[in-house]
Amino acid sequence: MSTSGADERLARQVLRIRIGQLLVNDGLRRGDFRVPLHLALGHEGIAAAVDQVMQDGDQLLLSHRNIHYNLARCDDFAAEYREYLLQGDGLAGGTLGSMNLSNPARGVPYSSSILGNNLPVAAGSALGGRLLADGGVTFVVTGDGAMEEGAFYESLVLMKSFDLPAVVVVENNGWSLATEIAERRCPIDLRQLTAAVGIPYAEVAGSDPFACAATLAAARAQAAAGAPQLLEVPLTTLGYWHVDDPRYPETGRFINYHHGAAPEAELADWPQLAADGSDPLQVLSERLPAAILADWAGQLRGELGAAIA
């Protein structure tokens, strides 16, 4: 089993984001926070990959579900946690909370709680980068709900029209609040949609951080050369549960929470939450020695837990 230093850094970052989220989840279950928090358990792979491929001068614009990216880009877990508590010594002085949390010093100048709002802002950011010729690339993260907004299509048109250095990352977990996307609308084929405006499309499983990093690195290189890119990332938001429902008498209704606590997710010695191929930690365990991963998990539980004790 051979891994590079970059692979090991990526794996450790995935673990850090998972453990940080589970510590936040513990706080949610205690009722510690006065702001809504959208966990992204199961999304750690794409967040760690974006962090790994970003270069100096790049910008990352986020949506309401941004905890995983902010954890990836922020070296001070305690500062982010205190921001969620709205404390004056938080990452943004307790003024932004969760859904609008930004970190300009680490290339995260903007997050928006408004569905699809960050897309035209990202187009403007990329246009600024193009005019300044600074070599930076704008990454913007959106989801399968926001891609229904008119701003999604309009932003793609603008990015292509001016050949902007932009990478659009669409996290597709198949849910809209607590309703499956398939229950409320027809499928939207992003491959065809992007082809209509001439933007290259790629798909990569969000459960595989190594594949995400490789695909993103290629996309960044193309975007930096003036060819905007779109990457669709199918993934599973973990921490779901079942509720009693007469329509599903044997199993109950499957629920994937939109925000708040994941009631059955626990910070275990090895904090893997699923074994069906949907959990990035399962991919890590197939790529790196178990002893190394267990050691890192123990270190991170101790370090992050102590930071907010």
Topology summary:
Layout lengths: L4 H26 L13 H10 L5 E4 L4 H7 L3 H8 L25 E2 L6 H15 L5 E6 L6 H12 L4 E7 L2 E2 L2 E2 H4 L5 H8 L3 E3 L5 H16 L4 E6 L6 E3 L9 E3 L24 H8 L2 H18 L2
Parallel strand pairs: 1-2, 1-3, 3-4, 4-8, 7-8
Antiparallel strand pairs: 5-6, 9-10
Helix pairs in contact: 1-2, 1-3, 1-11, 2-3, 2-9, 5-6
Task: Give a brief description.
The protein is of the alpha/beta class and 309 residues long. It has helices at residues 5-30, 44-53, 67-73, 77-84, 118-132, 150-161, 181-184, 190-197, 209-224, 280-287, 290-307; strands at 59-62, 110-111, 138-143, 166-172, 175-176, 179-180, 201-203, 229-234, 241-243, 253-255.
Structure write-up:
This protein is an alpha/beta fold and 309 residues long. It has one domain: Thiamin diphosphate (ThDP)-binding fold, Pyr/PP domains (Rossmann fold, 3-Layer(aba) Sandwich), CATH 3.40.50.970. It contains 11 helices and 10 strands. The chain has helices at residues 5-30, 44-53, 67-73, 77-84, 118-132, 150-161, 181-184, 190-197, 209-224, 280-287, 290-307; strands spanning 59-62, 110-111, 138-143, 166-172, 175-176, 179-180, 201-203, 229-234, 241-243, 253-255. Strand 7, helix 9 and strand 8 form a beta-alpha-beta unit. The model has no long low-confidence stretch (mean pLDDT 93).
